[in-house]
Amino acid sequence: MDRESDTGSESKSVRVRAMFAEIAPRYDFLNHALSLNIDRRWRRFVIRRLGDTLARPDAVALDLCCGTADLAIALGARVPTLGLDFCRPMLARGSDKLSRYACSVMLVEGDALKVPALDETFDIVTIAFGLRNLESVEAGLREIYRLLKSGGRTAVLEFSRPVIPVFRGLFNYYFTRILPLLGNTVSGSGFAYQYLPESVQDFPHQEALADLMRGVGFSNVRYYNLSGGVAALHLGDKN
Ligand SMILES: C[S@@+](CC[C@H](N)C(=O)[O-])C[C@H]1O[C@@H](n2cnc3c(N)ncnc32)[C@H](O)[C@@H]1O
Fold it and tell me: Residue 61 is inside which H or E element, if any?
């Protein structure tokens, strides 16, 4: 079997895991550099929007697809947090950072579609720039719903569709032409930063994602456009 058809037959998750393993050493640097540090602001916004739920006594959180643990660390500064990811090199980077922060975070290796936890374990389940990478967005949302306690809340942070047409055109030029060139060169990957805009194009936009969340049972679904819709934060509650 030649290399191309071999790759073509691999499941999405196998390719995604290998891709993140390849870029893990440069992931944080590129995240902050290519977004001009705006990604940090987006994660802070997530924490602010989860304020009420984070303030509950005995609340516990799960951050799926936690990668190098930036969001898990921010959550873990407030409540005990489990960070889960299936890419060991990403988790290793995250683990190296934990000692630098006052936070209660445990990192585990696992699949976000088959989390080894009982139903209704967590008050908060977050997923930042991870849902788009799963084999099935809907299956990911169902797993989040299963894991949440009644009264719990999910926060889904993901790239989305800029709302102003002129800005959308400019951003898409940057995202599909310039970012892949810079990202692939700095990370040493021939593929990862090409995959990024392609995967965002395939991902449901603001309203469609809100509908999917309602479809799996979330109530009070709402979203906030961040940086003009470059990203969106969707929140949903479990009754
Ligand atoms: C773009 S990174 C986001 C990391 C982090 N949440 C952040 O905001 O920087 C996507 C992460 O999702 C993880 N991932 C993708 N599919 C997964 C799955 N099925 N189970 C667990 N982790 C997964 C990858 O390994 C990668 O670390």
Answer: strand 61-64
Q: Measured in whole angstroms, how far is the alpha carbon of residue 41 from the centre of its chain?
A: 15
What are the chain's domains? 3-237 (3.40.50.150)
Q: Which protein residues are within 6 Å of ligand 1, measured from CB? A: 13, 16-17, 20, 31, 65-67, 70-71, 85-87, 90, 111-113, 128-130, 133-134
Q: Would you give the DSSP letter of residue 81?
A: E
Q: Specify the pLDDT at position 34.
A: 84
- Take residue 22 and report the two structure tokens written for it: 């390849």
Which of 9-18, 45-54, 55-64, 91-100 bottoms out in mean pLDDT, i.e. has the lowest?
A: 9-18
Q: Distance between CA atoms of 130 and 203, rounded to whole angstroms?
A: 11
CA distance 152 to 92: 29
How many whole angstroms from 64 Cα to the centroid of ligand 1? Answer: 7
Chain segment 208-228, per-residue pLDDT in tens: 999 999 999 999 999 999 999
- Ligand 1 atom closest to the Cα of residue 43 is 8
Q: What is the pTM of this model?
A: 0.93
Residue 160 one-letter amino acid: S
Which residue's CA is the nearest one to ligand 1's atom 25? 87
